[in-house]
Write a structure and sequence with these properties.
Helices cover 32% and strands 23% of the residues. It is of the alpha+beta class and 162 residues long. It has one domain: Roll (SH3 type barrels). Strands 1, 2, 3, 4, 5, 6 and 7 form a seven-stranded antiparallel beta sheet that branches.
């Protein structure tokens, strides 16, 4: 007979009558926005500008944070660490150096502070205006993840020794 509309089968009526993409985009709920436009970028090595007031890190407007693992839907979060240009070399065993220019917006040399990992919740990316910078090239991602695993392994050994 007739073809069915998959949008209606999902229990959701299609939205019609938008005069512009901006109007359609603005109509998305925060959860729809996160699911469609944010979570697809949640991969290890992705970089987001996160407001310092939101992350309780730094005294500037924002710092780049680098994701260290894939999105965890059970927790609704990702594990990330900040990248800073002012604390390079303070704790070399827990830092991962990324020079300026690896991504266009990373215009100064900096270190990812792997000892300062935190969970960033997906809902906050939209609510607080975290901005996607880009994803580190594959060679940088694999080195970053290796360094992160070493920091985690050292921390576990340290905990077992107590």
């Amino acid at each position: 007979m007739g073809e069915s509309d998959p949008r209606k089968e999902s229990g959701r009526e299609p939205r019609r009558g938008f005069k512009s993409f901006a109007e359609a985009f603005a109509s998305l709920t925060p959860a729809e926005h996160v699911n469609r436009f944010v979570i697809p970028h949640f991969v290890p090595g992705a970089v987001f500008w996160v407001p310092d007031t939101e992350a309780a890190f730094g005294h500037d407007a924002a710092h780049p944070w680098v994701l260290l693992e894939n999105y965890d839907p059970a927790r609704g979060s990702v594990l990330a660490a900040p990248r800073t240009s002012s604390r390079i070399g303070e704790d070399p065993a827990n830092e991962f150096f990324i020079p300026a220019g690896v991504l266009p917006e990373l215009d100064r040399d900096g270190s990812v502070l792997l000892g300062n990992r935190r969970r960033l919740f997906a809902s906050r990316f939209v609510q607080q205006g975290y901005r996607y910078v880009g994803c580190l090239p594959e060679s940088w991602r694999s080195d970053l993840l290796r360094a992160h695993q070493e920091v985690v392994a050292r921390a576990r050994r340290s905990m077992q020794g107590r």
